[in-house]
Structure formats: C-alpha cells, structure tokens
TrEMBL record:
Described function: Mediates influx of magnesium ions. Alternates between open and closed states. Activated by low cytoplasmic Mg(2+) levels. Inactive when cytoplasmic Mg(2+) levels are high.
Transmembrane segment boundaries: 263-282, 294-314
Main location: membrane
Pfam family, one: CorA
GO cellular component labels: plasma membrane
Listed name of the protein: Magnesium transport protein CorA
Gene that specifies this protein: corA
Originating organism: Alkalithermobacter paradoxus
Record membrane topology: Multi-pass membrane protein
Amino acid sequence: MSGSEDMKIKNINKNTMHCDDIYSNWYNKEDSYFILCKEKEILNLQHIFEFEDDTIEECIYDDEKVRFESFKEYDFISLNNLSWENKNVILEEINIYIGYNYIILVGEQSGNEIEEIYDYISLKISNLTHEKKELNKIYFWIFDMILKNYINTLESVEEDILTLENNIINEIEKRYFSQINCIRQQMDKITKNLRALLYVGDQFMINENKFIKRENQRYFRNIDVRINKLYDFSISLKSRSDQLIYLHNSGLTSHTNDIATRLTVLAIFFGPLTVITGIYGMNFDYMPELHWIYGYQFTLGIMATLTIILYAVFKKKKWL
C-alpha cells in the first residue's frame, strides 16, 4: 500500500504520532488510538479493524446521509458538519468509527473542517494527565464541536433572516424574492440534517455496544438534549424564513395599494376640472359665460378653488 500525507494516527496512551510509518507494525490492541484519514484512506485500515464493506463505501462516496449503525465490534456514524458561507449552507460529510480502543474520523478529501476538529481534540488530549486520557472524552468532544458549528450556522442564518426582514419592511425589491427562496432552501437542508441527527442522539441513550461508560453517560445525555434544542431552533428559523414570503407579498400589496391610492387621488383632483372643461367645450350657441368679459377668469377661479378644497380635505385625512 502507498503512503499517505493526510492520515494521522495518535497513540493516546503513549502520546505519540504515526504519520510516516503508518503501514509499519504500529497497532497494539492494548493501546488506544485517535485517527484521522480522508475518504479512500480508510481502505488502508479496513484489514486491521475488519470494517464492513458498506461502511467503507459510505466513506468513499459522499451522499450527505446521516446514519448510526452498531456492529459487533464497533459503531459507525455518518453525519454532516455545517458552515454558513455567502448565504449558503456548506455540508462536509464526516464518518466516524467508534471501537473499544479507537476513534477514527473520516473526512472529505478537500474538506478542512475535519482537520480543525482533529487538531482541536489532539490539543485537548495533550493537556490531559495520563489517567484522564480516555476515548469517551474524545467521543464527546467531537460531537460537542460539531454541535457548536451547527449553532454558529443557525445563528448566522438567523442574522441573515433578520436583515432580510428589515430590508423588506423598508423597501420592496425584486431581488429580495430570490434571496427569500434561497434562504428557505438552505433552511430545508439544515432542518433535514438535524431531523436525522435526532436518531443519533437516541442511539447515545441506547448505547448498544456499551462504548459509553456509565459515569460518562450524562455528557451524552447533554448532547442528546442539545440536538433536540437545535432541531427546535431550526424549525423556528424555518418558520421565520417561510414567513418572509408573506411579509414580501404583504409589502408588495401595500406598495401596489399605495400607488393605486395616489392614482385615485390624482383622478379625483382632475375629475372636477375635467367636468368643467367638458361643459365649456360643448358647442352650444347660448352659454352666458362664453360672452361674459370675466368668464375666463371666473372659470379659472372656480377650478383653483376646487383644487385647494380637495387638497385641504385630502391632507386632513392624510391621503397625501
């Protein structure tokens, strides 16, 4: 097998790293390991830990599905890490193998988030005393960091929804409609992932393979509660994003009504003037005012007076 620049194998007990010599005789069942690898690199570990082929395929081929399955010697978890960039949710698939003496993170070839998770946890491991170095802490830290990314993503979405709400209230523009549809689609994607993640939280409570020690179960109950709260948060934001459509349509209707009102006011202004000009535009021979020396000024005065009266009435009723 060829070497790998990406795979990192940390011996937790001895606090040593295996990078260049990962295909030498490094594995000892008496030690515990925290391992990072990318997609196809998991093939290099399959013969050691005897992983099922379908889990290997899950790692190699990204499908954005959330899955938790317990096998005889290990648990396999597939989920998505979230981030919010340029009004779009970015999904980075993370696959996790949990055994009695190892935790393996498998990430996308081009993904960076999983390396940040690995480096963050490796640092925390290094700061622990030898007696406190255990896999359950790593297991918890992984989900703790992933859920923090979820909450950061949801809070960023919330800020964008609030900004969009304020923009729609202040003015109606066509571009807001496409932004609303975009943010609704992104919320559907986030909610779908969190709904599936609820099942993972349930599996922590079942703890079929007993990888979670009794004294550490309270930490994973905390993870389960946080997943449920995040799901509730996402449902709330999804509802708010859906309401943006009604807000936009309401604003558009109000804007249309305002234009119609202004046109109606103009029509009322010009209505009496049109009647007067229409009357004196008729071709009758006997119209007294036609030959009156002040007829023209009198007619203009009536038209001006009507205009002033209408303006005063509309202003009082706040139609102008």
